[in-house]
Design brief:
about 180 residues, mainly alpha, Ferritin, elongated
Length: about 180
């Protein structure tokens, strides 16, 4: 059994809530996209929601394996409306950067607590967040290239669907979670 300090337990429980919020955030975005007839974006956000839920469950499992009962906190409701798909993806990038910072803070705490097991466990999240930010940055770059105008939503939706398929293929080939 791994001894998790009270500080680490609290931080991991906070991360569970953070990952849960991220999952709900993506789910809300998926159905906002559905209302906008952006089915490619909807699929992307549903996959992201499922991935964030899996991130949350990994922490639950780690804590449980460590002999600690993880907490399930109340999760705030994410926004349900966005000005545009461009705004939505900008908010997504902010959300991912926020999660990355939270993981980095957790890793720093684990280092301060000399908790080598948690440091090792968190390394997967560091790598995962780097990949997630890169995907969102790519989408934002493509949105910028496509621009705005009558047909831009169609092309943005198709481009996001294409990127989503590439991510799924990379995961299937063992290039990610």
């Amino acid at each position: 059994m791994i001894d998790l300090s009270p500080k680490i337990q609290e931080a991991l429980n906070n991360q569970i809530a953070y990952e849960g919020y991220a999952s709900n955030f993506y789910l809300a975005l998926a159905y906002w996209c559905d209302d906008q007839a952006l089915q490619g974006c909807k699929k992307f956000f549903i996959r992201q929601s499922e991935e964030e839920r899996m991130h949350m469950l990994k922490i639950y499992e780690y804590m449980s394996e460590s002999g600690v009962h993880p907490k399930t906190s109340a999760i705030p409701e994410p926004p349900l409306e966005y000005e545009s798909i461009q705004t939505a993806f900008s908010k997504v990038f902010e959300q991912e950067r926020s999660v990355t910072q939270s993981i980095h803070n957790l890793l720093l705490l684990a280092q301060q607590e000399n908790d080598y097991n948690t440091q090792q466990f968190l390394q997967w999240y560091v790598d995962e967040q780097r990949e997630e930010e890169a995907v969102i940055r790519t989408i934002l770059d493509r949105i910028k290239i496509i621009g705005q105008g009558g047909a831009s939503l169609y092309y943005i939706d198709k481009e996001v669907e294409k990127i989503n398929q590439e991510v799924i293929a990379a995961e299937a080939a063992g290039g990610g979670e």
